[in-house]
Specification:
This protein is an alpha+beta fold and about 130 residues long. It has helices spanning about 5-15, 20-25, 45-50, 60-65, 75-95, 110-125, and strands at about 5, 35, 40, 95-100, 100-105. A hairpin with a 2-residue loop joins strand 4 (about 95-100) and strand 5 (about 100-105). The longest helix has 21 residues, at about 75-95. The radius of gyration is 17 Å and the shape is elongated.
Length: about 130
């Protein structure tokens, strides 16, 4: 996961203008810092802002962190299996923590998501 985002990247993520992101940053709604005249945002702050403002679905790709590629494909597949297991656990518990705050996960089609994850796990195990 990328740790620092630009104004343009955050704007694309939320489907708003760069000016809107600048306003959110200037008002203190979204934590930022400046490098010369360019704004920068921590990805964790962007994620927290989205969750706090009911926009989780817009930042779903920030939740997934690809495992680092190991020296062998078996290790790589093992990393993915561990990641899938963690995602399944998050969905089953219905909550996750970020910066000492607990957030509720609400998924309408929870069983479909779990079945999809289990299918991915079986496929990876089959080729391991």
């Amino acid at each position: 996961m990328k740790k620092v985002m630009t104004t343009g990247e955050v704007a694309n993520l939320f489907s708003v203008s760069a000016r809107t992101i600048s306003k959110w940053g200037d008002s203190g709604k979204l934590k930022q810092w400046k490098v010369n005249n360019d704004r920068r945002f921590n990805t964790s702050d962007v994620l927290k802002f989205a969750i706090d403002n009911g926009m989780e679905s817009l930042v779903s790709d920030l939740y997934i962190v690809e495992p680092t590629k190991s020296s062998s494909s078996k290790d790589f597949n093992k990393d993915y299996l561990n990641l899938l297991s963690k995602i399944k656990s998050l969905i089953n518990t219905g909550k996750f923590c970020l910066e000492d705050k607990t957030y509720k996960i609400s998924i309408d089609n929870k069983n479909d998501v779990i079945q999809s994850i289990e299918l991915m796990e079986k496929t990876i195990q089959k080729y391991n």
